[in-house]
Amino acid sequence: MDTQGRDDIDPAGQWVLDPATGRYRPRQERARDTGRRSGLPRQTLRRPGAPAAMPSPRGRRTAAAAGPPGRRKGRPGRRQGAKQDKGITRRRKALLWTAGTMVLVLVAVGAGGYLLYQRFNGNLTTVDVGDAGSKDVIGDGPLNLLVIGTDSRQGLAGRYGDADNVGHADTTILFHVSADRSNATAMSIPRDIVTAIPDCPTRQKDGTTATIPGIPAGLTTPKFNESLGVGGRDPGCTMRAVTALTGIPVDHFMMVDFDAVKELSTAVGGVDVCLARPLVDPKSHLDLSAGPHRIEGEQALEFVRTRHALRNQSDLDRIRLQQNFLGAMIRKIKSSGTLTNPRKLFTLADTATRALTVDSAIGSVSRLTSLAKDLSKVDAKHITFTTLPVVDNPNERVHATVVVDRVRAQRLYTMIKDDVSLSGHRKRHKVDARLIGPRAAPSDVRVRVYNGSGILGAARGTVDWLRGAEGVGDPANGGNAPAPAPRTTLVYTPAQADQARTLAAMLGLPGSALRPSPQDGGTAAGMSLTLGADFTRAGVPVPDPDAEPDDLDRTRADNSSCVS
What's the sign of the alpha-carbon dihedral 259, 390, 279, 332? Predict the structure, then answer.
């Protein structure tokens, strides 16, 4: 529907830039009014050096889960001819860097270019996700932004599939920004993780809300990418799936399609990458020698979609390559003249917003401006990319899916929830005072053990180990905890502090696991030890939430070393 309420006209072609005012106006109205005002002839006007037909903003759109409106049409001839089929395939594989770049563009542009968003408000698409996210734009605490890359074909008239829904969650990054805005962690979530999909209330076209039933986790299905698109699930469903999977609440989402891939890399003047060895992939048409390269447009697509040129030819390898590319992109934006060149900044912002879909809580110029200014406080050297730890699915002979590495992933979840930086940029932590002081003899320790870990027989095994290996006087098995526990905790009275320190030393508990009880019940009742999801087995230290998971794949945004 155009600005006059007619639905037989594409609004994308009805707007042009008015050189007299610097604002976009309907084409006929602009030509008529400007001609009368300035005496200019009645002809198509454009700013000097601009192409004859510029991409132009649309009227504000609001997407509903059951059938979001199509994306705006591209420039004439853009998707025509034999090259179109190859281009669509390549763009589909480039979603991860496109999704991440949306966040990183905001980080880079920040206060330096936020006023330009006034021009691009009409480019945004919004989705009402209900209570899946936060109603606040920014607050005093940490910020969790979900960036989704979708393989949607909206706006292509069904020619390439997926014309009637928002596509699948082909690429997902949980972008966590610390409370003090000093650092950020960008955690990629592999699309082929087998996980449960929760029930999801979604807003329909008529304004009503319908709940899409969830799917319980099986041996090989469903996969995480089904949290979007399948059955009418909207981005709010993906937000709910991430929270269910990680225990981390998601505040907002940003979603992009593949149209921005070539344009963004070109808009910044190319992205500088360095290769430790040649990357040659006939399927993606990539052919790069070892050494430095500046890639943009079609070549950038080939780079980020390649898989067969990598050592293990896996999607996880491709994620690592794309994370390095994202770091190079943000370095290029911050180091080049993009932020001080009005034309470059205009092009970059226009390209980004045309590809952007956001939740309604940040779906306006003023709110997106606040978010951009907030994200701009994070320095590139304190942005760390990592991937959710996974292992091959043991239920498959031919591994087509993965499952979460429970122990290593839980430690990463804990670090994000506790706002601990992966970049090393954090305040020094003093030794917890709860671990300092006299300790009781093992034979004097009294404790009841509860199992909230989900591991069968964990409480019984811990009791046997404490009694046999450590000489604890009389440990008791309390059975299952009332509910699953995300972390191991030890509750004790002030009179039992010496016993708590002894037990913490035996089990390798961090100070954060010790929970003094406000009630002083003496020592007769014994302490309560609840084994949580961070527990593996007795004798293995419970990880400190400030300690990083072992062998965690990560790279910093300021890392410019050659990749292999």
Answer: positive
